Amino acid sequence: MTDDTPQPTLQFGWEEWISLPDLGVPALRAKVDTGARTSALHAFDIETFGSSAKPKVRFTVHPIPGRDDLVIPCSAEIVDRREVTSSNGDKELRYVISSSLEVSGQHWPIEITLTNRANMTSRMLLGRTALKDNISIVATERFQQPELSYDVYHTAKMRQSAPKRSLRIAVLSREDNYSTRRLVEEGEKRGHTVEVINTTRCYMAINAMAPEVHYDGKRLPRFDAVIPRIGASITPYGAAIIRQFETIGTYCVNGSAGITASRDKLYAHQLMARAKIGMPNTAFAASPRDTGNIIGLVGTAPLIVKLLESTQGKGVVLAETRKAAESVIDAFRGLKANFLVQDFVKEAAGEDIRCLVIGGKVVAAMKRTGAEGDFRSNLHRGGSAKSVKISKVERETAIRAARVFDLNKAGVDLLRSEAGPKVLEVNSSPGFEGIENSTGKNIVGNLYEMIEARVRPTPIRRRKASAKA
């Protein structure tokens, strides 16, 4: 306990059930050894991370003997690195962490060394420095304290009570902008280690047994999560890097398939049409002879002619008349560019709604208004933004649109029309500056809450190797 109140005497046998709540280990059998000074925990995949000023270690624990398929991922700050001599005289340099030990409702901090105890019958050894003054030892008995159960590892309560741990997170980005800096700042504030990785400087070792991602001549370490911020100009290569992380088994906030689909404006519109999501009337054709036909399919002027590769309002033209539309289309065709023709939603009056969807929820929305004389509302083109309250239908439309691409982080742009909300675009790498400033909300904090929930140290069941030859 942390106060000075006298505690009831605890009687320990030579083996006891204990809990390590700080590590998310609710039930563990430990050998009590007063002949050993240091306590030791059976740990696998031990790896350091974080800054040299505040180093951390992450590792996995197999809490149940003989059940190596049940894994608990853990992390903790390193308090020391110490040479420990085992009972057989072998010396080993071990990382030392601090964690709370709980027995029969009492808990107190202890130091634990991390080591491989595969040849030991107990997953943990409790040395004399971990034993309080009010503990008496009955060396001939076992389990003097209430017995715990391994059944806890198979319950939903385990996930709900799992502690938050420090994560190692990669931000795939080539830019030092507000969004990237906020991801680093907020992640570090929450105790995580966040590394910015230049996407184009990554390269891959593609093989069946050990797929890897390399960077600056070294294999990248295991990351708990990857936050992609892939620029439109490098979509194919960026998606390939994310695919490699997916192959390794790293949690990616947005998957490669969703990013690729959302960037292909034609395919994106086809997917949304299949999902019956409202959007402006859209037409596409390859032949110059079909110019008149695609204009007719969309409706009357004014019309929007949009390059398939357009971003931030670039390559988007408003044609006020049919003749102007034909001229723009001819010009784009002369450049051998692919484009869409869309109906111009007049009642939107140069305004759109950006909904930020994280983990299937709209966490913020802002109304963007174009600069004087510009029908485009993009903030990069001088538009302005303010917080806006959206309707239930608009909220549901934004969530459905993000779900079409299976994106956990998306900026969904809506137009308010007389026929209801119409989706202009689903952005897989939305910026945070405009929407955080206009709404006053901690959007990046919401993103980290989702990541922490998805990669919490709940037991992982690894597949056992097939017995078939």
What does it look like?
- This protein has 469 residues and is α+β, with helices and mostly antiparallel strands.
- Among the domains are: 152 residues, Beta Barrel (Cathepsin D, subunit A, domain 1); 94 residues, Rossmann fold (3-Layer(aba) Sandwich), CATH 3.40.50; 64 residues, ATP-grasp fold, A domain (Dna Ligase, domain 1).
- 22% of the residues lie in helices and 34% in strands.
- The strands form six sheets. Strands 2, 3, 4, 5, 6, 7, 8, 9, 10 and 28 form a ten-stranded mixed β-sheet that branches. A five-stranded antiparallel β-sheet has the order 25-24-23-26-27, with helices on both faces.
- A hairpin with a 2-residue loop joins strand 23 and strand 24.
- Helix 3 packs antiparallel against helix 4.
- 37% of the residues are buried.
Features:
10 helices; 469 residues; Rossmann fold; alpha+beta; Dna Ligase, domain 1; Cathepsin D, subunit A, domain 1
Overall number of strands? 28
Tell me what the CATH architecture of the domain at 10-161 is.
Beta Barrel
Hey, roughly how much beta strand do the residues contain?
Answer: 25-35%
* CATH class annotation of the domain at 10-161: Mainly Beta
First-to-last CA distance: 54 Å
- Give the integer mean of the pLDDT values: 85
Low-confidence stretches are 465-469
Rg, Å, rounded: 29 Å
